[in-house]
Amino acid sequence: MITRMTHMNIYVLDQDSALDFYVNKLGLKVVIDAPMNKDARWLTVGTPEQPGFEINLTPIHESLLHSKDTAEALRDLVKKGTFGVGIFTCTDIFATYEELQAKGVEFIKPPTKEFYGTEALFKDDSGNWFSLAQLN
Amino acid sequence: MDRQKKPTGLPTALNQLGDPYPKLYFYRRIVQAKLFIDQHFAENIELFSIADEACYSKFHFIRKFKEIYRKTPHQYLISVRIENAMKLLASGIPVTAVCDAVGFEELSSFSRSFKRIIGINPSDYLLKQQILKKQITDSPLTVIPHCFAYQYGWLEK
Lengths: 136, 157
Known about the structure:
The structure holds two protein chains of two kinds. Chain A has one domain (7-135): 2,3-Dihydroxybiphenyl 1,2-Dioxygenase, domain 1, CATH 3.10.180.10. Chain A is 24% helix and 39% strand. Chain A is built from three helices and eight strands, in the order E-H-E-E-E-H-E-H-E-E-E. The longest helix of chain A has 12 residues, at 68-79. By secondary structure, chain B is mainly α. Chain B has eight helices and no strands. In chain B, helix 4 (73-90) packs across helix 7 (122-138). At the A-B interface, strand 2, helix 3 and strand 6 of A face helix 1, helix 3 and helix 8 of B.
C-alpha cells in the first residue's frame, strides 16, 4: 500500500540559480543542501505547509543515469520549456501573482478563472513551467 | 461587490489584466506592505504607518493581510525576524548578535518568540544546526536517499 510521496525531481540547469529562484522568489525553504562532488550537490526545497515533501533540484550532467548525449539533450529540452512539472497552490492568487511578478518571475499566462478555481502559469529559471492555482 | 477604480499610470502587471479581476489596486498595496516587511524586518517598523500608507483603516488592512498571509502584519513581522534568525544561527553567529541583527530590542523577547515558534531556544538551535552542518559536510551520504545517490554515481568510491 503506497501512502505518501516524499521526494520528486526537477531537472535544473544551474543549482545556484535554481536555489535563488525557488527560495528567494517562490518562497520555498531549503530542506537539505549537501555537497556530493565538485559538480553537484543534493539540494532539496519544500513548501511551507508540507513537511516531509521535498523537491529535489537536480543538476543535469553525465552520470550512471545519463550518457553525455542524453544529458545534453535533456538540458536542451528543459531550456525549451518542454516540461510542465506541477501545480503550486496559494492562499490568494492575485496577491501571489503580484508578488512573484514584482520579483521578476516570468508568467506565461495571467490568473484566469477556470471551473475549479483561478490559475496562472509561470516558468522557473531553467524553463520548467508550473501552474499557480487558487482552488475553489 | 464594489470594484475599486482602476488606477491610471501605475506600471503594475495586475493593472494590465483588465476589469474582470477584483480590486487590483488593493492587492498591490497589501503585497507592497508584505514586501516592505520582508526587506525592512530588522528596522523598527511602525506597522500602523504601513496601514496608513496603504490607505486603509487599520482594521481592514489587518484583516485583509491576514486573509492572504494567514498572519497579522505584526505576527508576520515576528515570523520573518525568526526565520532570518534561524539562517544566521545556522551560520554560527552568536545568539545576542542575531537578536540585534533581526530587529529584536531585548534578548528575552527574542528567545521567547523563537521558542514559541520553533519549539526550542535559540542557543539550542544554534548547537543543533552546527552538529547537522558538520554531519552534512563530513558524511553527506548519511542525509540523502541512497537510491538517488546510486543513480548519480555518488556511492562509488
